Amino acid sequence: MMDENAAALGEVLARLLMRTRRLVRDYEARTDTAETVILWSMTIGHEPSPGRRG
After folding, report:
1. Most exposed: 6, 16, 19, 51, by fewest CB within 10 Å?
2. Using CA atoms, how far apart are residues 24 and 34, in angstroms rounded to an integer?
3. Under DSSP, is residue 47 helix (H, G, I), strand (E, B) or coil?
């Protein structure tokens, strides 16, 4: 009985850990994307286009 409970608890913890890792990965991906968009948008209008130099 005790071994069954320990096994069930281990399985639940393993699933929770996998879900947490997925959530962290997804959050980091969204953050990286948002940061890239912000940095990109800061460059708009600050550099001359190739046809309008000088």
Report:
1. 51
2. 15
3. coil
- Does position 22 have pLDDT exceeding 90, yes or no? yes
Residue 43's Cβ-count burial label (10 Å; 0-12, 13-18, 19+) is: exposed
pLDDT of residue 43: 86
The three-state secondary structure class of 46 is coil
CA dist., res. 30 & res. 32, Å (int): 5
Please say if the pLDDT value at position 52 is more than 70.
no
Dig out the tokens for 26 from the structure: 């997804």
Q: Does the pLDDT of residue 46 top 80, yes or no? A: no
